[in-house]
Every structure is written in structure tokens, then in C-alpha cells.
Amino acid sequence: MTDPIFFSVQALSAGYSGHPVVRDISFSLRKGSILTLIGPNGAGKSTILKTISGQLSALAGTVMISGRPLSAMPGRVLAREMSLLLTDRVRPDMMTCFEVAAMGRYPYTGRFGRLTETDRHIVHETLERVHAGELADLDFLEISDGQRQRVLLARALAQEPNILILDEPTSYLDIRHKIELLDILLEEAHQRQLTIVLSLHEIDLAEKISDMVMCIRDNCVWRYGPPEEVFNQSTITSLYDIREGTYLAASGSIELGRAPGTPEIFVIGGGGYGIPFYRALARKRIPFSAGILFEHDLEYGTACALAAQVYSAPAFEPISETVFNRAAEGLLRCRAALDAGAPVRRMNQANGRLLQKAAEAGIPVWRTIHELD
Questions:
Q1: DSSP state of 105
Q2: Does pTM surpass 0.85?
Q3: Could you give the 3-state DSSP secondary structure of residue 308?
């Protein structure tokens, strides 16, 4: 039996001082779902999150939790249903990490805010869940940004919510702590059925964590769907109005624009070996050719994004003489070749022949990025 809709937003209009920033926002989520908002700066992602969490009054539309309007829920009741982790930098003076995390228990502590043994156990347990148990007795202001974000997440989880709202939770974090935080969110969603709505700038991470993705642009929902439908080159290029560079859907990465001009270097790669050389040449603004690559190759998309000319062959077939001859002609027009170090096997013997061709023609063959200098 399909789980019922738990959290829904219908025809929401949100903004400030009566002026809408975003209009007609609608979505429905089941328990344990992760929805990620992406889009350019200023599109209204934070405004949406503040409105669906009750921090900002809606200009129109409804927000429902288990069939109950958000607007009809008393603050303490709402705090047991939903917790927030927003972009505002929290800097409490003279508080330990345990005390900061314990602030999440306020919906349960009564008028005087006293923690029971049960409350203390829940706080310690949530600190452990976010890998911050060893920070409990440390001053919150004396730990790193990544550690603070984990403590703040523990505070949000200590509320024992059914819904968690996060606005750019990976801001200020290095890549290790970004991955750790998102891994925690995945576990909370899948193991504890926590429903999560968040915004992210890192579209590669959004693709990996999300059940559904909402693209915000032009004051409205521009695209909405599962990540496998949203994260394609056409959609992401249009969403962010990318004019220089290329979004590669296969890897979820962005490549900078190719260097203009006639190819000067011929990179002989394959199997991912050529990618560092492509990027180094692009950084130095040296136009180059790449080949011979099979069209299913790991680095084919990067080569197409950065190379002035790509010589390619159909996948799962030996490289034909026609393709080899075209590549050889391109090689002979370059001042140097770069051997990226890809092993030469039966299917790509033509690349070994290209190296021989370069040697016979007196074209220098480089094997390290340092030789580019």
C-alpha cells in the first residue's frame, strides 16, 4: 500500500511586504522523502523555505502537515512536527555544544525549560548520530565550522521532528564535511522516515541525495521531478543560464570554457587518463585536440567540453583506419603530443600508432603536465 501524502504545499505565493518573490509553488511529499531546491541566486529558494516553515507568512496558498494547515498549529505543536537549520550564523556566548544541541528540546521541557534525564539522553544520542558526541563539553565558539554545523543539526534532530527544513546546510563546509552531513541526512530520511526539504548550490550533491528536485527560476517552479529527469545538460544549462563552460550530466560536473584557436597540442588519452591534461591545457588557455576516444569513454564528455577537436570512434569496435588517418592528420598539425598514460590494448592500438607517428615526424611527446610550461 502506498504511503499517504504527509507534507504538501499548494499554490503558495511567498514574498515580503505584500510583494511576491515566488508564485504558485506546489508539491507533495511522503514520509522519508528528500526534496532539494536548486536555482540561481535570488531565485527565491530561501523565501520558499522560510514560508513553508512558518517563519514568513504566506501571501497565498496553503501548507499542510498530515492534513492540518500549518497556520492553525500552535508554535509548540509545530515545533514537534518541524525543525529548521537556516543559513543564519549562530554564535551563542558561553555555551557548550551540549547546551546548544539541548536547545532543540524546548518543545518538550515545559515552562521552566528544565531537562529531564530523558531529554539529556536524547541530546547525547543525537550528538552521537551526527558524529559530534566528543564535542559535548566543548565551547561551541571554539570548534570548526564543520563541527558547528553538526552540532546545529543535532539541535534540529533533538526536536524529534517529522520534517526538517535546511537552507544551504553545506555552506562554510569543506568537501569532507559536506559529504558527512548529507550522508547523515540520507540515513535520517531512510532509517527514521524524516521528511527533508533543503536548498543546495552544489548540483552534483543535489543529484545524489534527492528523491525529488525543484528548480526555481523566474519567480516560479521552472522544473520539478526526480533527479534522473532534471539533471541533464539542457535543463541545467538553461536553469543557470550557463554561457561559458559546460554542464556534464554523466558526471554531474561543470567544465570551464575551451580555449579558442587552432589546436596546438594533441592529447592521446582514454579511460579517464586524459582528463587532468585537458583541464591543465584549458587553464593555460592552450587549444588542443583529443583522441582517439571511444564514444562511451569516461573522459569523452570532458574532451568534448574542453578540446577544440575530438577524434572519436564508436564504442565496442576497433578503431577504423579512416578514424586513425583523420587523427594522424590532426596530430601532424600540432607542435607537440601529450601521452596521458592510458594503457594501449587490442581495441585502442591506433593510439599506440599515433605515438609512433609523432616520434617518426619529430613531434615531441610529453608525458607530464609540468612539460606544458
A1: G
A2: no
A3: coil
